[in-house]
Write a structure and sequence with these properties.
96 residues, alpha+beta
């Protein structure tokens, strides 16, 4: 199994565009043998300590194999809806 954690930072005022992107992107995960384990929108008072910008959302995703993750990533990059992500996000940090 491959586990991916994404810290999502979006531009102010771009919530609806980001949600449009997510409504297409999240169902795509399962097409590549992946599963969204959780998607969290953390409140400011949820953090005990934070030494970086607070993320808008945190995603934890599981894939059956590295090949499945690579296929998902390659397929996702080629999608028409990628412009929604680029318009709405501020930056994206991914850690495996």
């Amino acid at each position: 199994m491959i586990y991916i954690t994404q810290l999502i930072y979006k531009k102010a005022g771009q919530e609806k565009i980001f949600d449009q992107f997510e409504s297409v992107a999240i169902p795509t995960i399962s097409k590549y043998k992946g599963r969204l384990l959780f998607r969290v929108k953390p409140a400011e008072d949820s953090f005990i300590e934070i030494n970086m910008e607070q993320p808008y959302e945190i995603h934890f995703v599981e894939f059956n194999s590295e090949k499945d993750f690579n296929n998902f990533y390659a397929g996702r990059r080629a999608k028409i809806f990628l412009h929604l992500k680029e318009q709405s996000k501020d930056s994206l940090a991914t850690q495996g």
